[in-house]
Amino acid sequence: MNKWLELLLGLILVIVPIYAAWTYSAAYWGAATIEFIKGGIVVFVVLIGLLFIMLGISDLKS
Q1: The pLDDT of residue 46
Q2: Does 7 have pLDDT greater than 80?
Q3: Cα–Cα distance for residue pair 32/38, rounded to 1 Å
Q4: Helix, strand or coil for residue 54?
Q5: How far apart (Å, rounded) are the C-alpha atoms in residues 30 and 10?
Q6: How many structural domains are present in the chain?
Q7: Cβ(17)–Cβ(45) below 8 Å
């Protein structure tokens, strides 16, 4: 994968889930659903985003 694409995808996967978890209203989805999204899915996607960022930085060095 292209090093710049990896960095861009990593940044998107870090920023978007955090923003989405903060903006969704608990009244719309329900409090338990929001807590699940904030807890599990957001952390998983952010970690994948960080992985892409590290891979992109590694490709920039070489």
Answers
A1: 84
A2: yes
A3: 10
A4: helix
A5: 29
A6: 1
A7: yes
Cβ–Cβ under 8 Å, residues 52 and 7:
yes
Residue 11: enclosing H or E segment and its boundaries? helix 3-23
Please provide the size of the chain in residues: 62
Domain span including residue 31: 3-61
User: Is the pTM higher than 0.70?
Assistant: no
Structure letter (DSSP) for residue 38? I
Between CA 41 and CA 58 the distance in angstroms is: 26
Contact partners, residue 34, CB within 8 Å, separation at least 6: 21, 24, 26
Identify whether the C-beta of residue 56 lies closer than 8 Å to the C-beta of residue 7.
Answer: yes
What letter represents residue 61's amino acid?
K
Q: In the predicted model, what is the mean pLDDT of residues 9-23? A: 80
Residue 49, both tokens:
């985003």
